[in-house]
Specification:
By secondary structure, the protein is an alpha/beta fold. It has one domain: Rossmann fold (3-Layer(aba) Sandwich), CATH 3.40.50.620. Helices cover 44% and strands 20% of the residues. The protein contains 5 helices and 5 strands. It has helices at residues 17-31, 56-80, 96-106, 121-127, 130-137; strands at residues 6-10, 34-41, 87-92, 111-116, 142-146. A 5-stranded parallel sheet has the order 3-2-1-4-5, sandwiched between helices. Strand 1 (6-10), helix 1 (17-31) and strand 2 (34-41) form a beta-alpha-beta unit. Helix 1 packs across helix 2 (56-80) and helix 3 packs parallel to helix 5. It is globular and about 55 Å long.
Length: 150
């Protein structure tokens, strides 16, 4: 079995994101591994222009600011758990799962710790599953943290 030295933690704005970071800290502490954070936000939908006062550029700026705040909060949890400032990546990409897989492979990560809502049936089909796509595509192990339903 390969030694786990680098853990990637993809985060979104789901309830439970802090819990994912806590799990990653526990795992990393036990393995003496480092943690890197990533948040992927999608380009704004072209339909945003039909909302009064909204612009694609404004929505992109808001998404970016929300992503930075999410990563800052996660980094604070890491520091509170004794981890040094970690790598933080904020990326804009049409499909979050593709960006996570690409980042995991290019960064030579040994483990991914991420959340899942474990949706089934129609809700899974309609909403998709970033976690499922990552598990099917990435080469390293993935630890799934069950999150509450939104």
């Amino acid at each position: 079995m390969k030694r786990v030295e680098r853990i990637l933690v993809p985060l979104d704005h789901s309830a439970g994101s802090d819990e994912i970071v806590e799990y990653a800290c526990a795992v990393a502490r036990g393995l003496a591994a480092s943690i890197a954070l990533i948040h992927v936000y999608e380009p704004p939908n072209s339909m945003v222009a039909i909302v009064a006062g909204a612009t694609p550029g404004g929505e992109a700026d808001a998404d970016r600011a929300a992503g930075v705040a999410l990563l800052d909060r996660a980094a604070a949890i890491l520091q509170a758990n004794g981890f040094p400032t970690s790598e933080r990546t904020l990326e804009r990409y049409p499909r979050a799962s593709e960006a996570i897989v690409r980042h995991a492979q290019s960064g030579n990560f040994d483990l991914i710790v991420m959340g899942t809502h474990a949706r089934r049936g129609v809700s899974r089909v309609v909403l998709g599953s970033v976690a499922e796509s990552v598990v099917r595509s990435v080469r390293c192990p993935v630890m799934m943290v069950h999150l509450p339903q939104d």
